[in-house]
Amino acid sequence: MNIALGITGSIAAYKSLGLIRLLRKSGAEVKVVLTKSASHFVTPLSCQTLSANEVYIDQFLLTKGMKHLTLSAWADVLVVAPATANIIGKAACGIGDDLLSTALLSFQKPVLFVPAMDSDMWANEIVRENVNKLRQTGFHILEPSFGALASGKIGKGRFPSVTIIQKKILVLYEKHKPLDLMRFLVSGGRTEEDIDPVRVITNRSSGRMARELLYAITCRAGIVKGVIGGVTVDFPEDMDITYTRTSGEMLEGLKENLSWCDCLIMAAAVGDYRPEKKKTRKIHDRAFSLNLEKNQDLLKKLIRVKSSPLVVGFSLEDSLLLARGKKKLTSKKCDMIILNSYSAMAGETTYAKILKKDGKVISFGEVTKWQLANRILDECIRALGKRRKKRKYK
Ligand SMILES: Cc1cc2nc3c(=O)[nH]c(=O)nc-3n(C[C@H](O)[C@H](O)[C@H](O)COP(=O)(O)O)c2cc1C
Questions:
Q1: Window from 9-23, 131-145, 284-298, 367-381 with minimum mean pLDDT
Q2: CATH class of 2-173
């Protein structure tokens, strides 16, 4: 994947150095175009060193070829991150008065703008009009985050995390279908069940599958809420996530949002067993035995609620036993079950099968959880069919 990265004169420009590193770590080749203003914020030397490529600033240098055209032919995606109000305005008006704005005029493949600015600038009516014009023309916009700004204010205008920018670029490069504001409720991570006030029974789930689902849904223009238990991977700060600990708390969090969603994806590793009795005081005995009972089944409890959404369950099985998966599919009234191998637990990749209500089975070799998340979402688009509620961008 070849990425042309335009950096413009925002105080957030230093963060795009982290983006260059992340893109290269994920295997992409990066060439940086700096505007004159941007070079006040980051040096060409830093960009050149981190990208391991020539940095482009001046359109009229006496080198062979027209840089805006050669860059356009080379890159798969052109990303402007951070994008100032100025470059957004120039692109919306078709102005090409430097290398980056001229490259934007000639580029025929996907273009992603990642605006970053003060909240008053972002709220400015002309900036809003320019952003809408770009969106309507087919440019992609990753909205800025809400939070603390360089001015000291709290508001919308923050540069989003570099991970979400990298995932958005992947969605454009891999040409994933948009989810058209479809609403997803995703559970993830592990639950804990108390033995006494300080000790718990839990499992080794990392939460990575749910995190990749949250990223994929957001970057494919869906709306997502997460109900997440214990995790060992970082979750994005600016997503709608309710953190829970026990299976009871997770059930409550899911119930609250069930009627809101079009699709429920249960990627959480809910403990199968819990102590029969929770001790109210810390256990100090030299030895003790613990009786476990079957834990509550969240899916069975949830689907009793009226007007169920599309339901996607997960099942961790040794050697991906189809028979057990099929039994779960019917007993839990799921539309789809994702069979995962043990290696999925806390791992970055998995061997998986998707079992569908109509009896079809889709098998994968080893896939990353990002790839699996996107395959699940493709199946959700298909399965939702007429149930799918199309909502227009506001
Ligand atoms: C310290 C400082 C910080 C700035 N931060 C931003 C910013 O975050 N977003 C923005 O749109 N403009 C910001 N500006 C204004 C732009 O740098 C200015 O509009 C410039 O002309 C943009 O040029 P460019 O789009 O060609 O890079 C900032 C200016 C200064 C002096």
A1: 284-298
A2: alpha beta
Residue 390: count other Cβ atoms within 10 Å of its Cβ: 7
* Nearest Cα residue to 225 out of 203, 254, 205: 254
Same topology between domain 2-173 and domain 183-387: yes
CA 60/CA 233 separation, integer angstroms: 46
Residue of 16, 57, 84 best suited for mutating to test ligand 1, as the one with most atoms within 8 Å of CB? 84
CB of 11 within 6 A of ligand 1: the answer is: yes
Q: List, in sequence order, the alpha helices (H) in the chain.
A: 15-25, 44-51, 67-74, 85-93, 99-106, 119-123, 125-137, 162-173, 208-219, 247-258, 298-302, 322-331, 369-384
C-alpha distances (whole Å) from 33 to each of 57, 360, 368 are 6, 48, 31
On the question of a cis peptide bond just before residue 82, with omega within 30 degrees of 0, the verdict is yes
Atom of ligand 1 nearest to the CA of 8: 27
| Paired tokens of 23 | 């893109």
**Ligand 1: nearest atom to the Cα of 150:** 8
Nearest to 363 by CA among 351, 381, 379, 348: 351
pLDDT attached to residue 394? 33
Tokens 């004159």 identify what position? 36
Which of 2-11, 232-241, 297-306 is predicted least confidently? 297-306
Query: Does the model's pTM come out above 0.85?
Result: yes
pLDDT surpassing 60 at residue 393? no
Domain boundaries, the chain: 2-173, 183-387
Q: 118-144 pLDDT, tens per residue?
A: 999 999 999 999 999 999 999 999 999
Q: How confident is the model at residue 392 (pLDDT cuts 50, 70, 90)?
A: very low
Pocket test for ligand 1, best of 86, 124, 127, 131 (most atoms within 8 A of CB): 86
CATH class of 183-387: alpha beta
| CB of 12 closer than 6 angstroms to any ligand 1 atom | yes
CB-based contact 315:328 (threshold 8 Å): yes
